[in-house]
Amino acid sequence: MKLDDLPSDIRSEILPQHTGRLIYRCLGCGREFGIEELIYVCSDCGQVLLIHDLNFERLTKIAGTVWRRIFDYRKLLNIPALKGIYRYHEFIGPVIPLDAVVYLGEGHTPVVEANSFLQEKVGLQFYFKNDGQNPSASFKDRGMASALSYINAMVKKGKVSDVLAICASTGDTSASAALYASYLAPHIKSAVLLPHKKVTPQQLSQPLGSGARVFEIPGVFDDCMKVVEALSEDYNVALLNSKNAWRILGQESYCYEIAQDFEYEVSNMVVVVPIGNAGNITAVMSGFLKFLEAGVINGLPKILGVQSEHANPVYRYYLEPDSKKRKFKPLTVKPSVAQAAMIGNPVSMPRVIHLVEKYNQLAGSQRVFFVEVTEQAIMDWEITANRNGHIACTHGGEALAGLVEANHRGITAQNDIAVIKSTAHALKFAEFQEMYFEQQFPPEFNIKPDSDLINAPVYVQPKDLEHLPAPGKPLAGDDFKVFVRRVSDEIAGLLDLKKR
User: Class of 139-244 per CATH?
Assistant: First the structure.
């Protein structure tokens, strides 16, 4: 639809007009910094930053009902810059000119309701939001579109040049960073650090295919992150991990989409997210708070953060009920099928602590919860979901297992509607399904495959067949007819089919 075809009373509001005044604000000491430089932590106290819009109050002057119409009509337009996460431009990046927006098809991923069998088994109405259907097959594209659009705007203004974008990754971040950086070549190049042998072959192939320099180092993600932090402190590079506050802004689009998908009625919802580096849950809380303040939504949904018992520092922190006695302790992770969440010292933890307190305070009661789940539950629920029409990755399985645990603990209510984040495409983690079906899990995972969930191909070759087809050597005539009949009869027997 063209802009001129929209109703006249809303037409002037459709193209973004808000001029934001964005600044970085330190979560430790409160110091503020301009956004003209690529910075990631406070130069005074070393704490992480969040981006604030000093002009945000202007957004609250527009009625929530008007914002809803703006977003809904933008959905009809064929303007690339507004087709992705920047449909919510005023809330994500109001200083980014539309001609600097990098759009590769990210955002607005489908929300798929679970079938009646699965909902009955879980005990709650729920949906999967398939963020694996983003361009690089993971939710990371939301934050990367934001970070790279910001860098692109800086390049266009002549503020930076010959940018080397760098990140540490368990797989998805590197794939996304390399993809988005390659779109802006030759102005931007990318390099990624991966823990050696801790990334699936599918994930490793992605940054290589996008032309990034890929470095594998000993250890786990936390070790890679420390190296990348050192590089960003000592050298002129653009850090693209969730320590980058622009990444958080882009990931807020996830909750804006949920609000729009459900007609902005979110008070009875439970939004379930797996926790890795904690940027995900940070963005979800921050986004819903912004929409509440602007009147786009009238209440806050429950937020459920889920961690495996093999990598659960955030869950452990919130086991202490008294906020004054809580003390965050990084931990050494164990192997997990939720590989991207295998992080013992999430860089966004200070943001989580800050936003959980604010979120619960504005809600008037506890609305943010944390649960842990077993590795066994992650795999069992992932496979169960995918046997019922979904394409959940292991992290989607982790989130679904968390919803089941929350339901058992009474965190959810009977009339709640849950939205589960499947962070990546199932094919990225297919090797874990393969290990499950072949019963080849190493003992450190503590996973014993359920025989009812195991599936494997059956080779069909009737023993009485004298002639078999082969590549380049097809059968013909009576030999082919005999082959077709015997193979079909054997398959019919295995399936217990009845003749017509």
Answer: alpha beta
